[in-house]
Description:
- This protein is of the alpha+beta class.
- It has two domains: 20-146, Neurotransmitter-gated ion-channel ligand-binding domain (Acetylcholine Binding Protein, Chain: A, Distorted Sandwich), CATH 2.70.170.10; 150-183, no CATH class.
- The chain is 21% helix and 27% strand.
- It has a five-stranded antiparallel sheet.
Amino acid sequence: MVREVEQKQPSADNSRGVPDEQRLMSHILLGYEKAVRPVKNASTPVIVKMGLTLTQIFDMDEKNQVLVTNVWLDQEWHDEFLQWQARDFANISVLRVPCDKLWLPDIVLYNNAAEYTDGVMSANAMVRSDGNVFWPVPTKLQSSCKVDVTYFHLMTRYIIDPCRKMRKKKRISEKERKKEIER
């Protein structure tokens, strides 16, 4: 999954002496209520597209049956209240907005093994002038997952025993080593 966003440099000069990006941020957030669903008609559903990119398997705790992973959780939706005419703001068509200023989908991992507030990092959302919002969030997920531990004790034995045998071989005397080499 590619995370590439066009960034425009705000023009330092404009009629009000305020950078265009700052002016745009003030414009779209003026009167914006993040607790309200981002639709003008209450019967309109908010469609959230999601993607998940696994970046690391951090831990697999077989005993407690918890899988810890680092992922990018990509979410995308349309916010009818975050639209503007790019030509009015130095042709800025994409704006990075702190996620704590926006309505966010309340989507959580159903089989979460941690607190629901754990693991989600604050990340900027990329808002396009047409109201499309893309929010890529680096997240640590702790999910409970059933692990068949029927043969777990055997796996442990095979993993640990070879190490013990190797240590024993290192402890043989010099005389015994010479005998092994001569054979």
